[in-house]
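Bench log, entry 3. Co-assembly request; chain sequences pasted below exactly as received.
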Amino acid sequence: MTLLDVQQIKKYFATQKAVDDISFSVAPGSIFGLLGPNGAGKTTLLRMMTGIIYPDSGNIIFDGKKFDPLKDIERIGYMPEERGLYKKMKIGEQALYLAQLKGLSKSHATQLIKEWFNKLEMESWWNKKVEDLSKGMSQKLQFVITVLHNPKLVILDEPFSGLDPVNSNLIKDEIFRLAKNGATVIFSTHRMEQVEEICNHIVLVNKGKKILDGTVKEVKQQFKENLFRISFDAMPLNTNNDSFTIVRQNDDYSLVVKINDGYTPNDILNYFLRSNANIYSFNEILPSLNDIFIRLVEGTPATRQFQNLSA
Amino acid sequence: MSKTLLVIGREYLTRVRKRTFIISTILFPLLYLGLIFGTGYITEKTSRKLRVALIDSSGYFNKAIVAHANQQDSSSFIDYVTMDPDTVKKNYTSLGYDAYIIIPPIKWEEGAKNLSLKTDKTYGVVPVMKVEGKLNAIWSTIKSEKLGIDENKRQILNQSNISVDAKNVNDEKSNAKIASGIGYACGFLIYFIMLIYGSQVMMGVMEEKTNRIAEVVVSSIRPFQLMLGKIIGISLVALTQFALWIAFIFIIYNITKASGSASNNVSGLVGSVQTVFTSIDVPLIIFCFAFYLLGGFFFYSSLYAAIGSAVNEDMREAQSLAFPVTLLVIFSIVLMTSAMADPTGPLAFWASIIPFSSPIVMMARIPFGVPGTVPWWQLGLSMALLVLGFILTTWFAGKIYRTGILMYGKKPTWKEMIKWAFRKS
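Structure output for the full assembly:
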């Protein structure tokens, strides 16, 4: 069962294949990370999922049916990368207006806004204007507006950009809470450490194509180099065995080793258990998403070149 | 549709509640009247009054007759000098004169052509004409005396005239002078409102685009709804302002009428306003004005919205793209001025039928009388075409808007924008 199924969608602009044949699916209640370097096509992809623009070809299936922006829009909350609010409008009225555009009744919207404002300590903001807010504050407001109508699918484009650690954590906690309450969250970012912390599932896009798809664990397994780290109370005298090759020897009496083909971690442990040194720790070194990201994206030109497409 | 209403409500309320709306509603009529009367007053006050020394060698002029003319007409000052002509010629500036004129020994039956008013600076045409007019007034007094016409007879000569006003047999009430006054006022008012509120639409769209609100909003409603909501909302603001002005006029009119008996001036004014009201069909004009105001506004403001969606925060980019559109509005005013000279001619007809100029030109023609000057079928055709026209421009603008509102970066050209409009979604 998937909440959102993206099937072979394409979007070509005059000079770019912004999204070129991408498919993936998002499980309900999951936190889904859409990763990619700048200009990879993330925002275009998200805009198609919110019905702001239409794909040139391909399908989007939302909740078992073909995505119909006019009807499904009320069950989606979208926060664009560059946040937008009316600067001169009072915050309370603004939140009310945007909530009503999402189909909430005035009284229901008012009640929800008051609840959220209470929760995030924003009660005193009602009659202020957006131009009086700091960047972090307006981000909080934007987030509240995005999730106010209790959407089934929350799409956040770079929700952490420009936030300090405190506000960043605040948003992060809210994302967790949304997922716990049954909402599905899709967000795009190029900050890998947050992805590792938050996401269940990731998709990596580069130059309009999908280059990686899986859970964080799967991806790490897929890209692991079978490296282990072993630390001792003193360096063993003999560190030569068929089961592994030493990658690095550290000064703190620890080794980084790579398992040779046909052997298991147990073989390494068995070998060292029989040696004269006491083992303190033994753990697998998994690549960070950051490493994987850099490895996959590196070597491709950092910025996309403009091409002439007749499409 | 209910969401479009929400957008309309927001656009309307945020504008009407602003202090600038109230101020501009009150100030605009004052400024408008100030512009008309003020410029007249200022030209009157600041126009140069030439002091001219008159040296007469014909012997017809005398001090009394010149002094009498100076009393009658203060737009220049002529001094009958008896000094030696050569001294005057040399020293007229130090004697306090701007110019001098020498009347040669002429005969009263013949007059004089091409006398020169000698000056040491170049003066405008108007002050010199005033001097000429005064000299002619004096000359005509002199001629009357020579012919033996006394003051009474002269008054008869000057004042018993035949004046002609055109009366259209199809429309007995119409009065060309009042009609052209009202026509001009309506045409210019529509012109101002279209330009002022049109640019408000453009700036509103630009604000939404540069603040990236558009992206949030179009994830809730269609871009076309957002654009339409904005245009309708702002048009209602314009209509509110117009309704307030009409209300002002009626209130002021009724107050002056009530207190009219007190002074002659006021009752004279009330009388002339009454002449205006009876010579035109007020409800028809108000209805047509509202119709052409809205129609013209929709026609142009959707284009302004498209421009606003295409550019970024740079006001200059917007202005350069808006220039062709603004030019059309200005051109309409030029057409109106020519159409007023001949309100039933072919230019007036075509300019009031074709949608881009019809809001201004037709509105200027209507006070001349329907169906006397503007037959019903012309009015109907013009209205139908205007509706068709604004549906077309709104559709076209909607297509551009949809693409432009999410497009950042380089300013597109009109050619590219037209390409957006005809691309499939």
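The interface with chain B takes residues 47, 50-54, 70, 73-74, 76, 78-80, 82-89, 97-98, 100-103, 142, 145 of chain A (CB under 8 Å). Residues 37 and 190 of chain A are 6 Å apart (CA to CA).
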